[in-house]
Specification:
Layout lengths: L2 E5 L2 E3 L5 E8 L4 E10 L6 E7 L4 E3 L7 E5 L5 E6 L8 E11 L2 E6 L3 E5 L2
Parallel strand pairs: 2-11
Antiparallel strand pairs: 1-3, 3-8, 4-5, 4-9, 5-6, 7-8, 9-10, 9-11
Length: 119
Amino acid sequence: QVHVVESGGGLVQPGGSLRLSCVVSGGPFIMNSMGWYRQAPGKQREWLAQVISSGMIQYADSVKGRFTLSRDNAGNTMYLQMNSLRPDDTAVYYCRLKEIRNRYEYDSWGQGTEVTVSA
């Protein structure tokens, strides 16, 4: 069974940048999609970006042009480069992996990494 771990969160000033990482371990997997989500205090979890099996990357309007999703060549690590951060980007950021095993889709989430944007 795969294991998903995010890292890279922290405190950053408005206008600053952070790069989040999501590492998938536990063996080979067939990715259906990998995505980034966030959940701010008192709000629902929000989808931010994803890469699908074809390699296409999609972004939510709220982060388009500021955030960039990428993956390493091995496909085990996904990144989220976040630029021009604003206080309303403050949230816990989660990585989600949807993988295919034996023709079924399995959903794995990381534990989250906290991002605080504040002066």
